[in-house]
Amino acid sequence: MTIKMPESIAAFFIADRDGGPDELAAGFTENAIVKDAGETLVGHEAIRQWKVDYTRKYGPTTTDPFFIVTEDGRTQVTAHVAGDFPGSPVDLRYFFVIAGDRIAELEITI
């Protein structure tokens, strides 16, 4: 199932699946915040390193997202994720806050 997403969010999933850490980080604002697995990361370099670390550790593959809803300025996208981690595969919820054409905040939860 294909869903229509804002361009910045679609670019995130493409970079996550096919791109490198620099490409992924470029889709975020300079002082963007990412919350994932109990960590809070701030800024391009931290987000870049997060991509390097989780790819090395889990090798995740995110399939096409299958659900999207926007409420109170946050866009929730749910995607099926499989990789080398306990409980794989799992459906994760990605909560995005967009500023202009980039991601200002991202929180990933189960």
In a nutshell, what does this entry contain?
By secondary structure, the protein is of the alpha+beta class. The chain has helices at 7-18, 21-26, 44-58, and strands at residues 28-36, 39-42, 61-62, 67-71, 74-82, 90-99, 102-109. The protein contains 3 helices and 7 strands; from the N terminus they run H-H-E-E-H-E-E-E-E-E.
Molecular structure report:
With 110 residues, the chain is α+β, with helices and mostly antiparallel strands. It has helices at 7-18, 21-26, 44-58, and strands spanning 28-36, 39-42, 61-62, 67-71, 74-82, 90-99, 102-109. Strands 1, 2, 3, 4, 5, 6 and 7 form a 7-stranded mixed β-sheet that branches. Strand 4 and strand 5 form a beta hairpin. The longest helix is centred in the middle third of the chain and has 15 residues, at 44-58. It is globular and about 35 Å long.
